Amino acid sequence: MTTVLVVGARSDIARAIARSYAGSGCELILAARSPDALAGDVADLKLRYGTAARAVAFDVLDTAQHGAFLDSLGELPDTMVCVVGLMGDQTQSEHDVAAADLVMRTNYTGPALLFAEAANRMVARGFGQLVGVSSVAGERGRARNYVYGSAKAGFTAYLSGLRQRLAQAGSKVRVMTVLPGFVRTSALADMETPGLLTAEPEEVAAAIRKAEAKGRERIYVRPIWRLVMAVIRSLPEPVFKKVKL
Amino acid sequence: MRTLSGWGRFPRAECRVVAPKGEVELRSAITSASSAIARGNGRSYGDPALNRETTLLLRHADRILDFDPATGRLEAESGVMLADIIATFLPRGWFVPVTPGTKFVTLGGMIAADVHGKNHHKAGSFGDYVESLELMLADGRVVRCSAGENPELFAATIGGMGLTGVIRSAVFRLIRVESAFIRQEILRTRDLAQTMEAFEALRDRSYSAAWIDCLARGRNLGRSILFCGEHARVEELPARQRSNPLAFAKRNARRLPPGIPGFALNSWTVKAFNQVYYAANRSGVKIVDYDRFFYPLDAILEWNRLYGPRGLLQYQCVLPKRKAAAGLTMMLEAVGRAGTGSFLSVLKLLGPGRGMLSFPMEGYTLALDFPANPRTLGLLSWLDAIVAAHGGRVYLAKDARMKPEMMDGYPEFAAFRKLRRAADPSGKFSSLQSQRLQL
What we know:
The structure holds 2 protein chains of 2 kinds. Chain A is an alpha/beta fold. Chain A has one domain (3-242): NAD(P)-binding Rossmann-like Domain (Rossmann fold, 3-Layer(aba) Sandwich), CATH 3.40.50.720. Helices cover 49% and strands 16% of the residues of chain A. The mean pLDDT of chain A is 97. Chain B is of the alpha+beta class. Chain B folds into 2 domains: 64-177, 2-Layer Sandwich (Uridine Diphospho-n-acetylenolpyruvylglucosamine Reductase, domain 3); 181-245 and 254-403, 2-Layer Sandwich (Alpha-Beta Plaits), CATH 3.30.70. Chain B has helices spanning 22-32, 82-89, 107-112, 120-123, 151-157, 192-201, 239-242, 267-280, 290-294, 321-338, 374-389, 413-423, 432-437, and strands spanning 2-5, 12-15, 17-18, 37-39, 55-57, 64-68, 73-77, 94-95, 130-136, 142-146, 166-173, 175-176, 181-189, 207-212, 224-231, 254-255, 284-289, 300-301, 312-320, 346-350, 363-371, 393-394. An 8-stranded antiparallel sheet of chain B has the order 17-13-15-14-20-21-19-22. In chain B, strands 6-7-11-9-10 form a 5-stranded antiparallel sheet. In chain B, helix 10 (321-338) packs antiparallel against helix 11. Chain B is globular. Chain B starts with a strand and ends with a helix. Chains A and B meet through helix 2 of A and strand 3 and strand 6 of B.
């Protein structure tokens, strides 16, 4: 039985991912700050797919406890998916140090340090998979969301480095970077986004499962984002400064 | 802010959309708003799920909470999609007791519109299978409603278009089926009288609905193809399906090409389609999968775009049986004269209804759809007059344009209003439709 740990399990993307794995017969561990809020999700997974599922308490900001958290799970999960994310309010993050710090720690320090602990344990065991849901916002800092974007950039770079290190060490542990773009989640409910660039949460899950099967390690959920971000990255700085993106 | 519309893409409105996660967020969204309405998957046609100030998007609250395999009792959050319920439980031998013509509706939407299906004449509407529901009121309180607990609020919420509160979850019963297939009988009729005779003669069939050729005139007026169905028993299936009767081949839904112009559907294309469709469906019996029988249109994702950028207007009314023949004849003649052919016209026999704002009543229901344009609006006002003159009513879940007077077709409207005022004195729950119709 494959066990999958989903961290940041209260999000719509996390729920879609959990359902996808449960649908393949995996056992699910859902982690979030308040596991009581996940009781419905646990019932849902069991009723829909007949698989085992449980909720556990986990605080991504409490980095000192990450190792102890992983050890408390009993057996180390086969796959860990980190869907933790906090967009924050850009304007607030520009003026309020505490708010910016929270965005940075939630999107970068917390997830990266969790994967550090998890990677070392998986390497010692000899196998495992780490899936980090990062963001296209980390591809180039933009005025409208650079606090969030910079933290996601850090996470993306961390995943990239970790992947290279493990590959060069000959480990079988795999690391996947997921770059979703716009996703039709509760958080984006009030935002008008271009249909072509906007994925359903289920598409994120499907893209991860497909990448897993094909051995891909860095994926855009909708392929068009690869092109969009290539263009954005390639804009010369004098031009980039002037365009509103 | 986002531009939202119903499935008909008419009207459109700039709405502030809030998608609350869980009870606490829902409560704060409701108590902090002065006006709000719940929205599921946006499949009502017109404006009942639009509120400019606060549209509460609930389709993310879609957890299945409990299921009793002994009785088929299912408890789920209101955002769960009918398609998910079927995909989860049909392989275990269960099906929904009542289904509308699309599976992309949410549980909350099915209750709020008290949807009916091809089995209404025998099985009633979806609300008849709801045992209880949890409703969040305007003041943030959550109350449990059932026939025994808050019975009046329960009755008003079924078919209440979300105006009594936000349905958080509901308990309803599934029915046992032996297979994922339907034994379909097709009967072709020559005119309206023959169509209505056929409905009566085939009353004992579990499911029945007719596609009606709304452009046929003269002696062919009302010619139809009547589709009847029964859940197929294992021994009725072809040999290769008998070993696994609940398995079904998933069809890949297709999408329409982008940018279909508004004139793609016109009286000539509809007429041509109707001729071919009528000729192609000969009387007979065959076994079809449930998807093909109940949800033929779901195979084309976003079929609503077929009507071009201006959108479509769906019109569904019911006429009491006694006056149905006369009223339907007048309506079909009016549609034929207007020449704006309805691409999909469906006629169906309904059984007795459950009152309040629930649509069904004993009689014949006719559903038509037209491109949204001034000519259609004129035609629909004329159809309203015919419906009113024959003691019928128009379905709120399809409506985008009727006048408040048409609520006279709902004899319990005053009682509903009173209950609603008691539950929500400030009238917080309201939609563009409820404002237009002064519900």
